[in-house]
Amino acid sequence: MKIKTISRSADDYVPVKSTQESQLPRNLDPALHPFERAREYTKALNATKLERMFAKPFVGQLGYGHRDGVYVIAKNYHVLNKLATASADGIIKYWNMSTREEICSYKAHYGLVTGLCVSPQHLSKHSKDNYMLSCGDDRTVKLWSANTDDFSGNENDKLDSGKGLLKTFHGEYAFQGLDHHREKSNFVTGGAEIQLWDTSRTKPLTNLSWGADNVTSVKFNQNETDILASTGSDNSIVLYDLRTNSPTQKFVQRMRTNAICWNPMEAYNFAVANEDHNAYYYDMRNLSRALHVYKDHVSAVMDVDFSPTGEEIVTGSYDKTIRIFNVKHGHSREIYHTKRMQHVFQVKYTMDSKYIVSGSDDGNVRLWRASAWERSSVKTTREKNKLEYDEKLKERFKNMPEIKRISRHRHVPKVIKKAQEIKKVELDSLKRRETNERKTRKDMPFVPERKKQIVGVVHKYDGKRKMNTDNDNDDDN
Amino acid sequence: MSKSRSTGNQSKKDGNTSSKFERGHNGTHKSQYLKTKDKKLKAGLKRIDEKYKQAVSSAAATEYLLPEAQGYLEAENEMEKTFRIRQSEIKDAVDVTTAAKALDLKLKEFGPYSINYSRNGTHLLICGRKGHVASMDWRKGDLRAEMYLNETCQTATYLQSEQYFAVAQKKYTFIYDHEGVELHRLKQHIEVKHMEFLPYHYLLATAGQTGWLKYQDVSTGQLVAELRTKLGPTSAMAQNPWNAVVHLGHANGTVTLWAPNMPTPLVRLLSARGPITSIAIDRQGYYMATTGADKSMKIWDIRNFRELHSIENLPTPGSNVAISDTGLLAVTRGPHVTLWKDALRSSKSSRPYFGSSGFSDRNTPYMSHLFPGNRVNNIQFVPFEDLIGVGHENGVTNLIVPGAGEANYDALEINPFETAKQRQEQEVRTLLNKLPADSIALDPNVIGTVDNRASAVRLNAKALAEITTEKENLSRSNKDIPDVKPDVKGKNSGLRSFLRKKTQNVIDERKIRVQKQLEKEKSARHRKEMIKRGEIDEEHKDLVSEALNRFG
Prior knowledge:
Chain B: Pfam families: BING4CT, WD40. Chain B: Residues 365-444 form the BING4 C-terminal domain. The structure holds two protein chains of two kinds. Chain A is of the alpha+beta class. Chain A contains six helices and 30 strands. Chain A has helices spanning 10-13, 36-54, 381-396, 401-408, 414-440, 469-476; strands spanning 2-4, 58-61, 70-75, 82-87, 91-96, 101-107, 113-119, 131-136, 140-145, 165-170, 178-180, 186-189, 195-198, 206-207, 215-220, 227-232, 236-241, 246-253, 257-262, 269-274, 279-283, 286-294, 301-306, 312-317, 322-326, 332-336, 344-349, 355-360, 365-369, 454-460. In chain A, the strands form seven sheets. Chain A has a five-stranded antiparallel sheet, with no helix packed on it. In chain A, strands 2-29-28-27 form a four-stranded antiparallel sheet, with no helix packed on it. Chain A starts with a strand and ends with a helix. Chain B folds into two domains: 82-429, YVTN repeat-like/Quinoprotein amine dehydrogenase (Methylamine Dehydrogenase, Chain H, 7 Propeller), CATH 2.130.10.10; 461-548, no CATH class. In chain B, 25% of the residues lie in helices and 28% in strands. Chain B contains eleven helices and 29 strands. In chain B, the strands form seven sheets. In chain B, strands 2-29-28-27 form a four-stranded antiparallel sheet. In chain B, strands 3-4-5-6 form a four-stranded antiparallel sheet, with no helix packed on it. Chain B has a four-stranded antiparallel sheet with strand order 7-8-9-10, with no helix packed on it. In chain B, strand 12 (203-208) and strand 13 form a beta hairpin. Chains A and B meet through strand 1, helix 1 and helix 2 of A and strand 1 and helix 4 of B. Strand 1 of chain A pairs antiparallel with strand 1 of chain B.
C-alpha cells in the first residue's frame, strides 16, 4: 500500500513570534470561492456607498478672499501650490495654496482687472522669481514681481509705487484678456484689437486682429506654443499662428464664447465655454463640428479648464455651480455648489489635477477636491490596495441599476432643479416641433447636435487682413 | 507501470488546469462581439476578453506555487484492494500528526451523537441525543463548552465561526456562544431535526417534524422566510454550497429545492420510492447523492437534473451520504461506512459497486470501515483534512481517508490556522459582504449578466395597453364580480358571499359596485315576489323610480 495524507506542519503556517506576519497561502481555484460575482457585486455596492459617504468636495477658501468679485484666476504652470487671483476692485493677490494664505496682495489697477497671468520663471532675472502680468480697464498692462512684498501703496489705493511694479505698458484702449507665451517673452492682449507684445518693449509688436470688433479673451496653447486662440464679442473664435504672425482660422457660433482652454495632452484640441449653457470640445483641424458637447448647466458657462491629464474638464457657470465632465462623456459626473457661492466666473484645475480652484462673484476663492471622496493623506499599502480594488469594482459594476442610482445621486439646489425641469420642457417642445415639421417637410436638413451651434462655415485666412502695425512698432524701440 | 500512469495523470491535469479557472466562458462568446458593428464597443469587448484570458492563464500559473499535495491511498499490486486496508494499518503507516488526528471519543451514555465541524475544521461540535452538547478545539484537545441540557437534542451546528452554535432541542432551537452561554431561544423554530447554516447569507435554515422550512438571519435576528413544504416531516436536508439552495428530502421520496424568496420549491425530484434518508451535494454544486429507505442510492447531475447512477439494491438502506471536497462519496448503512472514488462521473465504469464480482471495470469501494455492534448517526468530512468524522451510538470517531481533503486552502477565504485577530477581522468583512437572502437562486452568477430573453419576455407597450384595457373592460361590464341572480334566495346570493369574503373595513371601487349590484338584485327579487303574489302585473313599471334611475 502506498499512502500519503495531508499533514500541514503548523510551523509553516503559524508565525513563531508575534511580530511575524502569518502565512496567507492563496489558492485561486474557483471551487474554493463560491458566490464570487455576487460577493464582488456586494463589495462594489458597499464601495459606492462609501464613496458617497466620503464625498466632501469643499476643502476651504483661500485666506479671506477678495472684497469684490473674483473675475480672473491665473495658474502658475511651473509651481504646484501657487496661484494668482484678481478682483473687480483692481486688487491682485498671490496665494500659497498649501497654507491657504496670501503671499502678497496689492492694488494693481484702477477699476476692473481683466487679465492676469504668471509669466514663465525662466524669463525672470532670478530663476526663482515669479513675474506676473496684469491688464485692466485703465488701459495699462503691468509687469509685477510676485516675490517681493514691497507694494507699499497697496492699502491706500496708491498705484505704481514700491519695488513690486517692474514695468508698465500703456495702450490706447481698455484691455480684455491677457496671456503669456510659454517659452518666448511675448504676450498677447485682447480688447478692441488683439495685440502681440514683447516684455522688453513698450509698444505692441503686431496687431493680429481679423474682423472682430472686440476680443474678449485670449489663450496660448501650452504644447504647440506658437498657436493661440481668441474669442470675440461677435461670437467668433479665431486661431492664430505666431510663426506666420497671422490668424489662421475663424468660425462663428450662435452665442458668445466666454473662455477657451487647450487640451494639455492633445495639442490640437480645445474646449470652449459658451453662453448657450453648453461647453464644446473642438479639434482645430476640423472646426466644422464639435467633438463633444457638454450639457448640464442651466445658465451660461463662464469658464472651462482642462485637468493636466487631459481626461477631465471643469466648468463654472452663471448658475452658481461647478461641474466636472469626463472628456468622453457629454454629461457631468459631478456638481459642486454651496449656499453662499454666487455666479462662478473662474474655475481652474491645480497643476496636480487633484484640486479645483473657483472664483465667484461673492469674492471668495474656493478650493475643491477634483474627486470628492479622495483624501490626499499618506496611505498604507493596504489602504491603497483596498482603494484601487474598490475603484476597479465600481468600474466593473457601474451599470448595475442600484449602483448607478447611488453613484449618480447628488443634492442639487432647488433653483437649479427647477431650472433643469423648465429647460427640459423647452428643449422637448423644440424637439417635438422639429419632428412634427419634419413629417411634412421631407427636404428639411438634419443638423447634428454637434453642428447646431456653428453659424456659417469655417473661414481660412487668405492674407487679406489689414497689416498696418508691423512697421510702426519697430521705430518705437 | 506506476510511473507511466503518473505522467499520464500529469498531462491530463495540465490540460485541465486552465479550464478549471475559466468561469463559464468557453470561447463561444467571441463570435458574439465580432458581430457588433459598434467599433468602440468591439474594441472594449476585445480588451475585456484579452484581460480575462490573461487572468485565467496567470491564475493557472499559480498552480505550481501551491505548497501542499493531495493525499492518496494506492494498492501496490493487482491482488491488494484498498478497501481491505484497516484503519489500524493506516494509522501505523501515516505520520504521527495524522495518526493523532484519528480522534476516538467513547461517550456511551448520551448517544447517539451527531457531529458538526466548523467551516475551517478547527472545532468540533458534538451533540448527543440525550442532551450532551460539547464544542471543542479537537486537535489541541481543548474543550470550549460542555453542556448537559437534560432534554432531547436533535442536531447542532456552528454558525459563522466557532464562536456561536445553534442546537435543535426538543421543542425550540437555541443559540449558544463559545462558552455555552445561552444567547437566544428561537421560538419560531419548533421541533427542528435538521439545520444548515448558509455562511455567505448569514442564514440559519431549519426543517423538521413540522414540515416548515424556516430561514433566520443570525446577524439581524430577522425571520427571513417561512416556507411550508406541504410534504409532512422533513426526513433529510442539505445545502448546496455553490448556490445556497436548500435541498429537502421527504417521506414520499421526493427531493425539493428551496430558496427563501419562493413559496414553492424551485425544483422537485423523485429520487426514491420510500423516504429519503440523506442528501449530499458536492462543493461546486455539480452533483447530488441521495439515499432512500427503499435501499436505493442515486447520484444526480444537478446542473441539468439528470440521473447519473441509480443503485436500487443496497444490502441495507443507506442512512447517511457525504461528498468530500475532492469528490469522494461516503455512504453509511447501519454500522458500515463505505467510500468510493470517482463515483461522480457519468461513465458506466464509475457506478459504485460493493464488489467486483469478477469484472475488471467495476468501481469497487475505495475504503470501508465497520463499527461492530453500533450504528452510524451522522458523518461529515473534516474540512481541509484527510479525515471523515463519524458520529455514532458510542461517541465520535475520525477515520483517516487519504485524499479526502482539499490540500491547499485559501487563507483569505477560510483559514484553518487563523488567529483570533484574523477571525475577528474576517467576521467583520463577511458581515460587510453579506449577500441578501432573496438573491438565492439556482444560478449564483446571474447578477451582472444580461438577460438575453428580456426583450422577448418583456411586455411591449402595445401588449401592456391591451392587458390594461382588458382589465378595465372587465370591471366596466361587471365581469369581475358575480352576476345578478334574482332567482336565488337572499342568503345564497353570490354577491353576498363575495362581500362576506372581502375584508370588512376596506371599501374599494369593486366593493361599491358589488353593493350596488346587490341592491339591484334585491329590488328585482322583490318585484318578482310581488308579481308572484299578484300585487302587480308583469308589465308594471314604477315610473318614478325609472325616472330616478338615470341618476343612480
